[in-house]
Structure formats: C-alpha cells, structure tokens
Amino acid sequence: MASLFKKKTVDDIIKEQSKELRGTQRQITRDRAALEKQEKQMEAEIKKMAKSGNREACKILAKQLVQLRKQKNRTYAVSSKVTSMSTQTKVMNSQMKMAGAMSTTAKTMQAVNKKMDPQKTLKTMQDFQKENMKMGMTEDMINDTLDEIFDESGDEEESQDIVNQVLDEIGIEITGKMVKAPAAGKSVPGAAASSKQATISDDEIERQLRALGVD
C-alpha cells in the first residue's frame, strides 16, 4: 500500500511519458498499415469500375482515394511529432541529470575549499621546493667529493707507476734486496767502483724524478 501513495520522482514521470509515447507510435503504425490496405483495395475497385464502364463510380472512388492518401500522409507527420516529443523528453531528462551532477560537484568543491587553507597549502609547496633544492645541492656536493677522491687516488697511482717505470729504466727494483755491506777489514774487488756507480745512480734517480714533477 505504501508504494501506491509514494511520490513519483522525475525519472518515474519521464518513464511513464516515454511508455505512452511508444504506445502512441505503435498505434499510429497500425493505423497506417490499415490505411495502406484500404488504399490497395480502393485502387483495385477503381480499376474494376473503369473496366465495367461505370464512370460515376470511378469519380466517387477516386475522391475517396485522395482523402485516404491524405490521411495516410498525416500519420507520417504525427509519427514524426511523437518521435520529436520522445527525443525532447530524453534530452530534458539528460539535462536535469547533468544539472544535478553539477550541483553535487559544486557542493563538494565548496566543502573542500572550506577545509583547505590556501596559505597553508602555499607554505607546504614552498617548503617542499626548498627541501628539494637542498637535497639536490647535497647530492651535488657528495658527487663532487667522490669525484675528487677518485681523481686523487688515480693521480697517486699514476705517480707511483711513473716512479716504478723510472726505477725500472735505470735498473733498480723498488722491492729488490739491498746490497750487503762488505765485512770489516776485507776488501771487495770493485767495491769502490760499485759505490761510485751507486752514487751516480741516486743522482740520476733524483734528476729524473724532478723532471717528472715527482717530489
């Protein structure tokens, strides 16, 4: 019982109207089909009267045929009007739904704007930009420091390679064993010459190192 006294919504009314318009359209189609059937029958009757030579009957039936065809053409106009009404109803329904959706969206945006503080939002964005810049600067500094460390390490290794190369060229191994000193009271043949050669080799080493820029 409660459903009988329930207030109809706009959608309910539009559905009922659409249903009525569809029923009207079907009825118009049936009426047109009936008129077309009568038209064919009347054309056949006119031909029959013409063959029999009944001129007056042909005139009367011809006038009736003209009226019948006018009535059939009116059904097309009425059908077009009903279709237009149905389309307009659907468009109005869509517009009403769109208006309702826009109203709901406007209320939601209004509620969000009330809760949102523009100044606070702006400050948050500025803080984010500031911290992002700091992070970028810190990353650049770390990268520069790492590059310097690796570059210095490479220079040290390169310098050591140059020293080793020079020492190899003059016949001295950095990891080689030192020449043992001769025992006291004994003379080793060629010791003086070796000592002189050693002195010359040290000078030569220092000269080449200075030439290479190695302290």
UniProtKB/TrEMBL annotation:
Keyword Coiled coil among UniProt keywords: yes
GO terms, biological process: vacuolar transport
Top-level taxon of origin: Eukaryota
A Pfam family this chain is assigned to: Snf7
Xref: Gene3D superfamilies: 6.10.140.1230
Coiled-coil ranges from the UniProt annotation: 21-55
The entry's keywords: Coiled coil
Protein family according to the UniProt entry: Belongs to the SNF7 family.
Protein known as: Charged multivesicular body protein 2Ba
Organism: Betta splendens
Gene responsible for this protein: chmp2ba
